[in-house]
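$ fold --in a.seq
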Amino acid sequence: MNTLKDRLEELMAEHGLTTQQQLADFAGVSKGLVGQWFNGSTGLGAKPLLAFGKKTRFSTQWLADGTGEKYQPDSTGKPIESNATAFAMVETWQDGTPLNNAECEVPFLKEVRLSAGSGAFEASDFNGYKLRFHKSTLHRKGINPKDVVCVSADGNSMEPVFPDGATLGVDTSQKHIKDGKIYAINHDGWLRTKILYRLPGNRIRIHSYNEDEHPNEEVDASDIQIIGRVFWWSVLD
């Protein structure tokens, strides 16, 4: 299993933390919030992710949702197999550039802004830009290239995991919610990227990493449309 509880227990073991109170002090949060992490009722917010990123060698992406490299690029930890996150090169091109046999192309909708903040969005016709993905890395994750679309994040609600302007890969075939995963959703006309949790009574909790500025929301499942799961992102600072 690779639950948030599992990942936090690994962090605790590496840093000699034996109780939830010690982890709370380490992250600068309350013991009650740590208890919610362990029982799966809420995810990590921006404050603890920033603390963990500064104090440990673990990457914020891996701590947040279990994907990507376990350790930060400048970590002195043991090497990590590169196929964990090597999904794509960050190169755009327009029609006419030949592909090699190991590559596939997916649409990069540069003028479609998935909101990771207030929710506003704009869309225009496909502009011809694409991203190159290696077929083998998509296939290892069980992702059909025909189901992939790339877009840009907008806003600060998902910082520090991905900031405003990050490029996101969305698998449009994955519309069933797995608790704690990131999804692109249409919420009452707003295109948003959020962490989703299923709740009793056909309700959905919408969670942001930057929960200080963007508190949790609860909505009826019928109020949102799942566009797909965000499986990859790229950030250039």
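$ fold --in b.seq
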Amino acid sequence: MSTTQPLGRTPAAPPLRVRDQAREAATLIAFSAATASCLALGLLLLTHLGLQG
């Protein structure tokens, strides 16, 4: 006797709604923008400190 369940009985996750996908996309965009801004500010700071020394 097999302990695996047939394919028809496995619970499937409900598909994401469009608004959930849009929220995830907006979160990803905000995270990417914040990361890029922090990296740019860090490089600007390093450049500024390098010119002083």
